[in-house]
Design goal:
The complex is a heterodimer. By secondary structure, chain A is an alpha/beta fold. Helices cover about 30% and strands about 20% of the residues of chain A. Chain B has one domain: ABC transporter involved in vitamin B12 uptake, BtuC. The chains are: A alpha/beta, B mainly alpha. At the A-B interface, strand 5, helix 3 and helix 4 of A face helix 9, helix 10 and helix 12 of B.
Chain lengths: ~280, ~280
C-alpha cells in the first residue's frame, strides 16, 4: 500500500447504508479469543433503533460478540454485516470502554474526550473546526454535562463518566452503540440518568446493545434480551427468553431460582458485584 | 552572575553543546509524553540498550568515524522497535517479557562486539553515557534535521496519537490505521534515541524520555500543555545541566539527568505538600 493511500485512511467517509439490508446481521459466526472458542455458530439480526440487553455468565463471549459486530475482531467462521456491508467499513459504530479500562489520569478534559469521536471525520493534519466544537457542545448538552466540559476527566463521578462516553458516541454520530457493563458500580440515581439518555437515544433511532449482569433490569428496561453462553441460548422478548430451561442452559449450576410476587425470576450468577448472594 | 552565565559561551563546543542539549531535550520530551501515557517506560529504557550492537558495528566498520555509528544505531533502533511491535502483536508472549528477552539479547550482542575491541572501549563509553561537548557542527545539523522531522510528525498526527493512547479500541472503531500509527510511534521513539545518543547516552536515556513528561503531567491536565511543559522542562534541564557540568566538573549526561530529576522532585514535593483537590 502506498504512503498516499495510507494517509487517505485517516479520513473515513464510512460505508453507504443499503436501505433494505438488515441493520446488523451475523450468520453462523464463530470466533476465537486468545485461542479459545468464545463464540460458536451465532446467527442473529438486529433492527435499527432497538435496544437490546446482552446477558450471560462471565466468559460467555459478550465482549467478543461486540468486537465482531464492531468489526475489530475477525470471526473465525461465518460473516458479520452492518447495513449489508463489512462492519470494518463503517465509522458509525461506537463501542464504549468499561470505566475500569480507562486511564482516568490521562491529561484530557471532558470536551477533549467527546471531540475524539470526531477525529476520523476531521481528517489528517486538520484541527477541530468551529462546527466540530459546536457538535461537541450539543452532545454534552444532550447528556447534561455541558457545565463540566472543561473538567479533567478524573473529576467526574461514575455516572458522569458514563455519560461523557455516550456523548463521545453521539459526537461520532454513531448509529450503533455498544456498552460493556455501563451500570456496574453506579448508584440507582446514576443508573436512572443513563436510562434517561437511552430513552433519548431511542428517539434518535440509535441502536443500543448493553452487556449487563442484572437480569431484572434487562427484563424491565430493554426491548429484547440476548442470552449468551458461547452459543446463542435465546434472543427475543424478556418473557420468552428468561425461561427456566434457557437460564439453566446459560448459567448451569450457578443458578438460583426465586419466585417473586410479580412472578419474575431472580438469579444469582457467577458475578460477584451485583445482588446479595443466596446460598 | 552575567559573566557566570556568559563565560562558558565563549567556547564554541559549549555553544554547540547547549544547542544540542536543548534541542534533544525538546524532542525527547515530546516523544516521551507518549512513552509515559502509554506506559512504555520499560521500552524506553530497553530500546536504547538494544541499539548497542548497531553502535558497535558502525564503530567497528567505520573505524571510529561518527557517520557509520549514527547509521548503525539508526538501523538497530528501527529494527528493534519494529521487531518488538511484531513480536507482541497478537502473540502469546507478554509484552514486557518480550522486551526483556529481545533487548537483553541485543545488549549482550553489543557488549560482545565491544569486548572484541577492548582498546576502543573508552570511546564507546561515550555512547553509554553521552558526550554532548563532543558535538560537531555537522552533528548539530543532523540532530536539528532529525529532531525537526520527529517534532513535525508528532504535531501532524497529534489527535490520532492522542486517541490511540487514550483508547485503542476507539481508534479501531474510528477506523484509524492503528498498526501504522503504532509502528510510526515506535519509529519516532527509535529516531529520538539515535538523536539523544550523543547527549545523554544509552544508560540514562530513559530519564530524558520519562522524567520531563511525568513532571509536566503533575502540573497540567491537558495533553498539549503537558507536551509544552515537558519540552520546556527538558530544554531547561539540558542547558542548566551543561552549566552544572561546566562548573562542577561532572559528566554532562549525568548532570542533565540530575537537573531533570531535581525538577521532578521539586514539583512532586510541591504537589505532595499542597492539599489534594477533590
Amino acid at each position: 500500500m502506498s504512503l498516499l493511500e495510507r494517509l487517505r485512511d485517516f479520513t473515513h467517509p464510512g460505508a453507504p447504508h443499503a436501505d433494505h439490508a438488515p441493520f446488523v446481521r451475523l450468520q453462523n459466526v464463530s470466533a476465537h479469543y486468545d485461542g479459545v472458542l468464545a463464540l460458536e455458530d451465532i446467527s442473529l439480526e438486529l433492527y435499527g433503533g432497538e435496544q437490546v440487553a446482552v446477558v450471560g455468565p462471565n466468559g460467555a463471549g459478550k465482549s467478543t460478540l461486540f468486537k465482531v459486530i464492531a468489526g475489530i475482531h475477525p470471526p473465525s467462521r461465518g460473516t458479520a454485516t452492518m447495513r449489508g456491508s463489512d462492519p470494518r467499513q463503517h465509522i458509525c459504530i461506537a463501542y464504549l470502554p468499561q470505566r475500569t479500562e480507562v486511564d482516568w489520569r490521562f491529561p484530557v478534559t471532558v470536551q477533549d474526550v467527546v471531540m475524539m469521536g470526531r477525529v476520523s471525520k476531521m481528517g489528517l493534519f486538520r484541527r477541530p473546526h468551529p462546527t466540530d466544537w459546536q457538535a461537541v457542545h450539543e452532545c454534552l448538552a444532550l447528556v447534561n454535562l455541558e457545565s463540566l466540559a472543561a473538567r479533567q476527566i478524573q473529576e467526574l463521578s461514575g455516572g458522569q463518566q458514563q455519560r461523557m462516553f455516550i456523548a463521545q458516541a453521539l459526537a461520532q454520530e454513531a448509529e450503533l452503540l455498544m456498552m460493556d457493563e455501563p451500570l456496574n458500580g453506579l448508584d440507582a440515581p446514576s443508573q436512572e440518568e443513563v436510562f434517561n439518555i437511552l430513552a433519548e437515544l431511542k428517539q434518535r433511532r440509535v441502536t443500543v446493545l448493553v452487556a449487563m449482569h442484572d437480569l431484572g433490569l434487562a427484563a424491565r428496561r430493554f426491548d429484547r434480551v440476548l442470552l449468551l453462553n458461547r452459543r446463542l441460548v435465546g434472543f427475543g422478548r424478556p418473557g420468552e427468553v428468561f425461561t427456566e430451561a434457557h437460564l439453566r442452559r446459560a448459567y448451569g449450576g450457578h443458578l438460583q431460582m426465586v419466585e417473586t410476587p410479580e412472578g419474575t425470576l431472580v438469579l444469582n450468577d457467577t458475578c460477584c458485584d451485583d445482588d446479595a448472594h443466596a446460598h | 552572575m552575567l559573566t557566570w552565565l556568559l563565560e562558558p559561551l565563549t567556547f564554541a563546543f559549549m555553544q554547540r553543546g547547549l544547542l544540542a542539549a536543548a534541542l534533544v531535550g525538546v524532542v525527547c520530551a515530546l516523544v516521551g509524553t507518549y512513552v509515559v501515557l502509554r506506559g512504555m517506560a520499560f521500552l524506553g529504557d530497553a530500546l536504547p540498550h538494544a541499539i548497542l550492537p548497531g553502535v558497535a558495528a558502525g564503530y567497528l566498520l567505520g573505524g571510529g568515524a561518527r557517520g557509520p555509528v549514527l547509521w548503525g544505531s539508526l538501523v538497530a533502533a528501527i529494527f528493534t522497535a519494529l521487531g518488538i511491535g511484531a513480536l507482541t502483536r497478537g502473540a502469546r508472549i507478554r509484552e514486557d517479557s518480550a522486551i526483556g528477552i529481545f533487548f537483553a539479547g541485543m545488549f549482550a550482542l553489543g557488549i560482545a562486539l565491544i569486548s572484541s575491541i577492548r582498546s576502543y572501549a573508552v570511546d564507546l563509553t561515550h555512547f553509554l553515557f553521552g558526550n554532548v561537548l563532543g558535538v560537531t557542527a555537522n552533528d548539530l545539523w543532523l540532530t536539528a534535521a532529525l529532531g525537526g522531522l520527529v517534532i513535525l510528525v508528532i504535531l501532524a498526527f497529534y489527535k490520532e496519537f492522542m486517541v490511540l493512547a487514550f483508547d485503542p479500541r476507539l481508534a479501531a472503531t474510528l477506523r484509524l490505521p492503528t498498526n501504522f500509527l503504532e509502528n510510526l510511534l515506535l519509529v519516532l521513539i527509535a529516531l529520538t534515541i539515535v538523536i539523544a545518543l550523543q547527549t545523554v547516552g544509552i544508560a540514562l536515556m530513559v530519564a530524558m524520555l520519562v522524567t520531563p513528561a511525568v513532571t509536566a503531567s503533575l502540573l497540567t491536565r491537558r495533553l498539549h500543555w503537558m507536551m509544552a511543559l515537558a519540552a520546556a522542562i527538558a530544554a531547561f534541564s539540558g542547558v542548566a545541566g551543561l552549566y552544572l557540568s561546566y562548573y562542577a566538573g561532572i559528566a554532562s549526561g549525568a548532570a542533565i539527568v540530575l537537573v531533570c530529576t531535581a525538577c521532578f522532585l521539586v514539583v512532586w514535593g510541591g504537589q505532595s505538600l499542597r492539599p489534594q483537590r477533590a
